[in-house]
Amino acid sequence: MVGWFYVNDEVAAPVRMLETDTQTGVITIEVASNFIRNRSMLRGETIIEFRSWTTRRAVRCLGAEQVGGSLMIEAVDVGASRMGEAEADDPRGAAEDWLIVDGRARCQIHRLRLGDQPESNRTHCLFHVALTDWRDLRIGEGAVLASVGISMDASHDNDGSITPLLHAARDLPLDQPLPRVELIRLRERQRYTITPIATDWGDETTLVVSRVLEQSPLAETRVGMQV
Length: 227
Prior knowledge:
Elements: E1 3-7, E2 10-15, E3 17-20, E4 27-32, E5 46-50, E6 57-67, E7 70-80, E8 97-101, E9 104-114, E10 123-130, H1 131-138, E11 181-185, E12 190-201, E13 205-217
Antiparallel strand pairs: 1-2, 1-5, 3-4, 4-7, 5-6, 6-7, 8-9, 8-11, 9-10, 10-13, 11-12, 12-13
């Protein structure tokens, strides 16, 4: 045993093995399958306590596969755990975080969490977007994020998906450039270049998991959120 796996603040299973892909930042976690009888549990708040880490880490599970008596879970780090702690008010005021596509502010995002997995050169983040905003960004004529995701023709087994990977829309021009997607944190004065990789659609909001490619300070001057 190398650690513990928590679901919704409760111990769910001892961790048999944990490995991080340093290129993608994806964490593979092995637990005994008899502890996780319903994979829908893995859509909850999941936390890893690993013996070589200095803090418990919140993770977002992407998928899981049964291998013999083990369940192999793929997840990404989305920040330090706040398990059992109330989130303190920030003296700088309320967060104001925006999703920017090709230099234009598209919508405000909420409940942003940023990972910091030390074993990987890839960081991930998780945030929520209003369902109608995300639908407009992904679906229909002029949807600016329609080309984001893996090709619909690519073979991918979604049977074990917990947070399904994004697929690019069909019939897009082959030479269509991918949009530049960014997060702007006005309170923290930070800019993050991201690539959305997976989503979980809810009744009112969509949870978006993204890979963080670059972080930089936000310039002080801005005009009408054209950043």
